[in-house]
Amino acid sequence: MPSNLHVVFFADMNYVRHLAVAGTSVIESCRTGAVTIHVVAIGIGASERAMLSASWVGETVDVRFHDWDPGQFEGWQTGEYFTTSVYARLFLPELVGVTGRLVSLDCDMVILRDLAPLLRTDLAGSPVAAVREPYTPTVSWRRGLSNWAREGIAPETPYFNSGLMLIDTKRWRELRVTESALAYGRRYLSTMVGRDEECLNAALRGDWAELDQEWNAGPYWRLAHRRTGAYADILDRRRIVHYQGIDKPWLTWNPDDRGDARLYYEYLDRTAWKGWRP
Amino acid sequence: MLRIKLGMATDDKFAFPTAVTISSLMANLGPDAAVDAFVIGYGLGVANRRLLEGLGDGGLRLSVSLFDRDQSEFADYPASSPGHNRITKAAYGRLILPDIVPADVDRLLYLDADTLVRHDVSPLYRVDLAGHAIAARHDPVVPTFDHPGGVQAWRTLGVSGKTDYFNSGVMVLDIERWHAEDWGPRVKGYLVDHRDNVMLYDQEGLNAIARGSFARLDWRWNAIEYRRKGDITTPPDAMLDSFIVHFLGDVKPWDLPTGSDDGACHSEYWQYAEKLAHAE
């Protein structure tokens, strides 16, 4: 069955198990047609690849691995919770080789609903659609672009979370997004704060289509006083749960937990890592 | 499961007491809680980095994230004051912790390195801030702005001299409110503007901005052992009821000979300290 839903994840060995969870949630949420899952693999071993493939079986599922080596990013900003693997994100269209639309997802996510409607988003000529980062709504906000002023980017330019991106690969190539992201990174190696995400926001300079928060709902919405107005029901209508930030579900296991961490283990128990607990 | 976010800041000299504070916090933590510690390190040596990072277990009960910074970021801040020793500039680190912790940290427990935790801090972390950015203990040593150790420039602030003053050694911070009310730049602004007329450094800057508006913590969360000039503020017996002891005086337990029991809870302090020393 030909698939027009192409999803890409990138992962190193630290994130293989979480990738299994996220991929399983993509497959289980898929209601229409087939899905191709691309894995940009950074040092993922043969047995882990076999476990991923075993976790993602089905006639409508196609799994493809693409190897990538972050060696060229030696000396680039990493930080306490990130390795140079994150810079894989800058190369996704090139690595995957898809010519149409591509959905890029973080591994620390659970996809609750079909991704097909996302593919129909009107990008209005932009190479990317994404969700605005609620913690950093503009480039001049804390943790935004460390060098927005020097780059001549207007301070009120919106800033997106790169965990979910709908990519028009053709437009991405035309606008040379990878190249501008890399150039920004090289210019500001010592002052960057947001790694791959900062590079992409700098490269796009606000030229991205904004998706509703339900497509990438992170811990920002934990606090009840933030869930007002249009976001009053965000937890009910969210399509993707993003375990962004420090509170990762795999760090804690509590059988009585009814929160988002429980979701992670429900999906985990339907992968080859079934039964794993911290 | 409660994941408590702990913030501390230290230089090489305070790294060992920082480790003691964290060890004592973990030893008394309730079974349904875990801790993510964010420690700013100013010029930490290899051994002290290893000591602090070695406390963590990968995050199941405790993750320790070290953030290397340079004290030159406080070049404009007061470095000395008339009635007080020179400050260890690492103490200003608490003022930038809200900018350094990950974006999804909504609430932060801050502890000074000269504290010893004797109780589960979960209830402290859950304290009702009642709309304030900071919860802290009303200071028993410097109770009001017009105390000699208080806010030196209080008259210029247009507040009463009897405005309540808090101790900044144990604080629970509402990070969202801290940023929304612009605390970081405002405290910095106060300290830089008054750099020649500040007595108690970061604590004075925080109080000058708070103007008495802070959630009051029960005294037991910051039981102050203040032995300077024989002026004992909390009766030593009461220390046994405390949840967190704060060794505020000039004589710190770790400066005394190993095993000495010179003050309240010093013997408890040494139980943790010796365990850590042996682990090294």
Helix content of chain B: 25-40%
- Strand and helix order of chain B: EHEHEHEEHEEHHHEEEH
CATH class of chain A: Alpha Beta
Fourth-level CATH superfamily of chain B: Spore Coat Polysaccharide Biosynthesis Protein SpsA, Chain A
Shape of chain A: globular
The largest β sheet of chain B comes out as: 7 strands, mixed
Low-confidence stretches of chain A: none
Spatial strand order of the main sheet of chain B:
3-2-1-4-7-6-8
Q: Give the rounded overall mean pLDDT of chain A.
A: 94
Oligomer: heterodimer
Biggest pleated-sheet summary of chain A: 7 strands, mixed
Give the chain pair forming the largest contact, with residue counts: A-B, 22 and 20 residues
| Helix/strand structural class of chain A | alpha/beta
Tally the helices of chain A: 9
SSE run of chain A:
EHEHEHEEHEEHHHEHEH
Q: How much strand content do the residues of chain A show?
A: 15-25%
| Shape label of chain B | globular
Count of individual beta strands of chain B: 10
How is the largest sheet of chain A built, in terms of strand order? 3-2-1-4-7-6-8
CATH top-level class of chain B:
Alpha Beta
CATH topology category name of chain B: Spore Coat Polysaccharide Biosynthesis Protein SpsA, Chain A
Structure notes:
The complex is a heterodimer of chains A (278) and B (280). Chain A has 278 residues and is of the alpha/beta class. Chain A contains nine helices and nine strands. In chain A, the strands form two sheets. Chain A has a seven-stranded mixed β-sheet, with helices on both faces. A two-stranded antiparallel sheet of chain A has the order 5-9. In chain A, strand 2 (35-42), helix 2 (46-55) and strand 3 (61-67) form a beta-alpha-beta unit. The mean pLDDT of chain A is 94. With 280 residues, chain B is α/β, with parallel strands linked by helices. Chain B has one domain: Spore Coat Polysaccharide Biosynthesis Protein SpsA, Chain A. Chain B is 26% helix and 21% strand. Chain B has eight helices and ten strands. Chain B has a seven-stranded mixed β-sheet, sandwiched between helices. In chain B, strand 1 (2-11), helix 1 (15-27) and strand 2 form a beta-alpha-beta unit. In chain B, helix 1 (15-27) runs parallel beside helix 2, helix 1 crosses helix 8 (266-279) and helix 6 crosses helix 7. At the A-B interface, loops of A face strand 3 of B.
